[in-house]
Amino acid sequence: MKRTSMLVGLVASAALALTACGGNTSGASGANGEAAGPGAKAAQGGTLQVLANAGFSHLDPARGFDGGVNNFYRLIYRTLTTQGAAPGADGTKIVPDLATDTGKPSDGGKTWTFTLKDGLFFETGAPITSADVKWGVSRAWDPEIGIGSPYAKQLIAAPASYQGPYKSGELPTIQTPDAKTIVFHLKKPYADFGSVVAQNTFTPVPKGQGAGNALDSKPIASGPYKISEYKPGAALKLVRNDKWDKKTDDVRQANPDAYQWTFGLDPATIDERMIAGQGTDADAIAGTIQAATVARIQTAQLKQRTMSGLGGCTTYMGLNSTKKPLDNVKVRQAINLAVNKQTVRDAVGGSTLAEIATSIQPPTIAGRVDYDPYPSPDHKGDVDGARKLLTEAGFANGFTMTLDTRAQPKMQAMAVAIQQALEPLKITVKINTIDTATYYEVIGTTSQQHDAAITGWCPDWPSGATFLPPLFDGRNITPKGNSNLSQLNDPGVNAKIDEIAKLTDVQAANKAYGELDKQIMALAPVVPLLYEKVLMLVGSNIGGAYLHDGFSGGIDLVSVGLKDSSK
User: How does pLDDT run across 414-470, given as a tens digit for each residue?
Assistant: First the structure.
């Protein structure tokens, strides 16, 4: 998934790894061993409040692909398959959703067939058919709309000139022999396509609808909730979708009667409200707390409302290899050596809120190799080694570069830490602050991308294949919705990605991706910065809450609710 968005925190990106995040906790337990904190059983009913710093990037499932929206999508949308609803490794398993199973491959894995369940309807009362699923998936090829998850376009065969259903009509490589059956023809065999169809781009859209910005303002729900009120950047309310049938859905608990988001709140204000826990804030959840708040939540009473764990994502600085002098590998290596990761970690709150990153893949990825390609004492940066590399590259007198970051205190503090770390090398870093709600869309538009950007990545489902190929396969660089922020297009890396893709043994493939991590970091297209942790404080009336390993360690929205809905 996607790109991380830990400032919203509880709504985070895309699937994690085959193993569970270590250290996740969900509040206190009672004397009989039953959960007494946020993990206590949730009741049906009531309105769950969500306090957030920033609004959602997009409500259109073909457009949103960041950590701030993927978890939310499961409340209003359904896909052919989805991730499980459970803490730990069980939450990263792919299970049927709209489909009766996780797909049937044929033709050596190049053709995949799915059958829809009975009793599926949109919020309008119209039945969900295979034609609607096809229409929704086909939208991924639209150059303006399909800026979200790239996997459909990368894997499903399509004419080179195809530009989505509104411009090009039917996509012949997706067949719908009847209202319940949908058949995908792939470019090449792909053993894990049952996980691919859990991506947001496989959300059904009524055939003929959803053009332009229609779904960004008024989604058409297939999940247990629908939108009753939406003021972008200010507020969003979900109410029950009475056309959703729980008998067709083994994943979503749909505990609250309604969800109420309040956007645009200052992070410090959110922390103050969550600590006080007054009024409807007792029914609230929010994102990771601010660094300044950590020391204040150590009381026994607040610890009972605290949830923590490793987020499962990597925060990094992408270096645009098409920009001079960053097109010189020695310059990129010098930056990797020079960055003081201790000060970057201090900027987000220290070791309580983050671990220092040395590789691209986080510790939670299966097959990940623990190594440090650009070591320095205590991770405080090797300025002398970096200066030597810059001199060899012909930039002993430094240069000026622009660093993109989000309009959020934590991210701006990280940018300043990087700016200060590069000053001794005479590298002048100009910080360009972009609105949080549009940040990923801006940096994912290659024509608007600057020299570097602070961002993050979370795996999209339990496989190493969802970490390195999306970020570094040069053949997937696109004008919009681009995930390869370094714009690396290295023949050796591309060839190794193809070689690993042919492996049918998932464990062998994950091990190979661990080695590919080393090959990529030798080219220094990114600076791994942090493996961020989740530390949340929830309202005293919150129940059914656990940190879902598939959403950057955030609270799983499909299971959370209120302990007492009458309050």
Answer: 999 999 999 999 999 999 999 988 999 999 999 999 999 999 998 887 677 888 999
pLDDT of residue 100: 98
Task: Quote the CA–CA distance of 246 and 343 in Å, as a whole number.
Answer: 49
The two beta strands, 526-537 and 427-434, are unpaired
Number of H helices, E strands in the chain: 16, 21
Q: Can you say whether residue 537 is alpha, beta or left, with left for phi > 0 and alpha for psi between -120 and 50 degrees?
A: beta
Structure tokens at 426: 């005479």
Global model pTM greater than 0.85: no
Strands 306-310 and 94-96: unpaired
- Rounded CA-CA distance 3/179 in Å is 34
For the record, the structure tokens of 228 come out as 């009753």
pLDDT at 463: 72
Please report the DSSP string for 219-270 in residue order.
----SSEEEEEEETTTEEEEEE-TT--GGG-SS----SSEEEEE-S--HHHH
The pair of structure tokens assigned to 428 is: 């002048």
pLDDT digits (tens, 9 = 90+) for 219-239: 999 999 999 999 999 999 999
DSSP 481-497: S---TT----HHHHHHH
Q: Which two tokens stand for residue 231?
A: 């003021």
| Strand, coil or helix: 354 | strand
Task: Tell me which residues of the chain have a pLDDT lower than 70.
Answer: 1-36, 67-68, 462, 550-553
**H-helix or E-strand containing 126?**
none
Dihedral pair phi/psi, residue 99, rounded to 5°: -85, 160
Strand-strand pairing, 427-434 and 235-240: unpaired
Residue matched to tokens 């499909």: 558
Give the closest residue to 98 by CA, choosing from 2, 194, 185, 18: 194
DSSP per-residue codes, 76-132: H---SEEE-SSSGGGGGSEEESSBSSS-EEEGGGTEEEEEBPSS-B-TTSPBP-HHH
Angle at 541 between CA 537 and CA 543, to 5 degrees: 80
What is the number of alpha carbons within 13 Å of residue 96 lying toward its C-beta?
14
Report the residue count for the chain: 567
Mind listing the pLDDT tens digit for each residue in 475-494? 989 999 899 999 999 999 99
Instruction: Give yes or no for a cis peptide into 409 (omega within 30° of 0).
Output: no
